[in-house]
Each structure stands twice: as C-alpha cells, then as structure tokens.
Amino acid sequence: xxxxxxxxxSALRVWDSRGRPTVEAEVHxxxxxxxxxxxxxxxxxxxxEALDLRDGGAVLGxxxxxxxxxxxxxxxxxxxxxTDATDQSAVDALLxxxxxxxxxxxxxxxxxxxxxxxxxxxxxxxxxxxxxxxxKGSGAGPGAGDGDVTIPLPEIQIFGGGAHAGGRVxxxxxxxxxxxxxxxxxxxxxxxxxxxxxxxxxxxxxxxRGVADEGGYWPEFGSNEEALEYLARAIEAAGLAPVDQVAIxxxxxxxxxxxxxxxxxxxDGDELDSAAFTETMAxxxxxxxxxxxxxPLAEDDEAGLRAFTSRFGERLxxxxxxxxxxxxxxxxxxxxxxxxxxxxxxxxxxxxxxEARRALEASRDVGWSAIVSARSGETEDTTIVHxxxxxxxxxxxxxxxxxxxxMAKWNEVLRIETAxxxxxxxxxxxxxxxxxx
Length: 437
Prior knowledge:
about 425 residues; alpha/beta; TIM Barrel; 2 domains; eight-stranded mixed β-barrel; globular
C-alpha cells in the first residue's frame, strides 16, 4: 500500500463555542501520518447550503451528532480505505457520490467536511509541511515553497447582532478592517485598540450587555444606526484615521429579517420595501466609513441585490453569503446578473474542500474578491487559516477579537506571517480592490 493511502478514519463527538456537539474526524495513513479536523456550525444560514446531520429528539436539544459519527465510522471509513489522501478531489468526489444528495443531508455536511479537511491535514503531514504550504502547490500535492504567499487582511467583529446576539440589533456583524496596516500583526494591534476603545465607550454609556456568539460586544443600542455611530467613535477614540487606516465592514445578514422584498427592522420599528431599505443603507454608506457590505438584501431578493451592486459596486465590496452559499454555479450566476462582487467561502456550506475551492475559482474567473470565513459555532480548529493562506485568498473573517476559538485563528496567521519573515505579502488595502462589477 502506498504510504499516503488512507488506512483508517475515526470520529469523535466534541463541543463547539456555544457548548453544542459537533464532529471531529481523524484520518490515518499507511505511513503513520494523521490529520484531524472539526466541523463548525452556523446560526445564520442560507437556505441553499449543505446540511448538518443532527439526531433530533430530546437529548441535547436534538443537536447531538451520533448519526453523523456513525456515518464516518461506517460507510465513510469503509469507502475511503485504500484511497490516496493526496488526491483531494477524488476523495471529495467519493464523499459526494456516497452521500448521493445535493445538500449532504444523508451523511451530513458536518461529517463530510470534517473528513474532507482531515484528509488534507493528513496529506500535508505525510509530506512534512504545514497545511497552507501543501495547499499552495496544486491542492493535490506538496506546496511549491514560500514565494508569493499572501497573508490575508482580517475582517474582525466589534459588535455582534442578529442571530448571534438574540436579535438585539438587527444587523448581524459590525466589523472593522485595517486597509492601512502594513502587516497582519499591525492590523491586529489596531483592532485591539479599537476593540478596547469600543468597550470603554459602551461601558461608560451603560450600554454593554455581554458578549455575542462570535466574541464581539453584545450592545444595548436604541437603533441600528447607533451601533454605527459607536463603531465610528471607537475608531477615532483609538487614534486611527477612518478609511485610510481602519474602516467599517458590515454583515447585514438581511435574510434573517427580510422576505419577499420586505425588511422588518425590529430595533428601529420599521418595515421597509427593498428600495427603501437600500436608501437606509445608502444614508449609512454616505455618513460612515463603510467599505464592505455582506448580504445587504435577502437571498430571495435578487433584484434588490442587483440594484444595490449597480449603485455601490464601484466603491464598495459587496459580499454574497446566503445568496451564494459557497457554490460555484451560484457565483457564476451572480456575476452574470450583476449581483455582488465578492464571495464568502465557508467550507461547511459546500460540504467538502474541493467544492469550496471550486466556488473560489469561480469567483476568480469573474474578477471577484473572496473572503474565507468561520462560523458562529466554532472550535480550536484552524483549518480555515491554512485555506486562506494556501489558496491565496486575500481576506479572512473569523469573528471578533476575544474568545479562544477566534483568537486561535488570528494567532495561527501570526505564526505563519512570522515564519515567512519578509517572504509573505500582506494583502492590505489591495484585498478590497480585487473586485469587478
């Protein structure tokens, strides 16, 4: 048997950042190499994304994963035994064929993505290189050295809202990016200053309620606009220049409060049609240092997304998440109709690494930018960091600047940047410029 053939696949129930069960897969190769990965889980989910398999019933609120674990230990392990771990596309094709559904609902996307990522880790271990370097090659073999390595621009949540914070603020993520930073390390220093300044402002005003799912502050704001005001104030209080050094990125997550072209902003007491909601966002864009907007309209409002992109696509990054769900076909369609100009890449939305990479390649084919993203239910797993660096994706979004499941990922990028020395290129402002309309 070849040294990189899969000899065993095992699974373990572990726990995510919300204290909910999730799936860990471990893949062993004939030469003794092994790889391990954990599936994340989302709270705000697009209707077209791959589905986790949960047990249902009364135990753990129906969220247990024993069925998904059994699928890994049984069907998946049997099918992958003897398969070459360095042929990621063949492994993932086998997983898709074995599942036999379009949404991974039979085996569970939590099972398939954990195994898919674990196979990549095992192959990298067999080649004696970090996963990012292994992926940097062709995705099917060892990496090609350290030349031309992109260190992504971080997109970091300061305030959490929407499904991540009990709906207290309608918009889901109030984030910052640091296009003026000269390194990932400097971007994190600036973020730390803004995060601390925001905490002081909230505390002084008696508006600090707690911490949201992704580690951002859970605020007690009276309106969605007030959150933008406080975030802009925090940037300035940190002594940083809006836009030139630090700017605002929003995840509206409009599918959470919009349907059939109507948008209900509970905090503001408004119900708006697509055009009126776009005007509300236009006012925010004019008044605040916003450079990126994710899911500004709901996934079922393609006409609204097209109109928003036509109006703002030259000046803003407009990111599709629920609308595109890490799907190559949807990216191609979105580009064809002029909806969005960037894609969020979430491996568990697709269910395998190969499918996630196809969505990334589709975005490059149409001249879009891309962001590799974590989910609200995360763990210590740092696979997405290696995907961002190894695949040359210019942006990375993993949540806020607190909680270890988030900081583990930021720290992993720091390690890679430090190991590369001057050989890595920080994406910086250029990450936001790689888009077309």
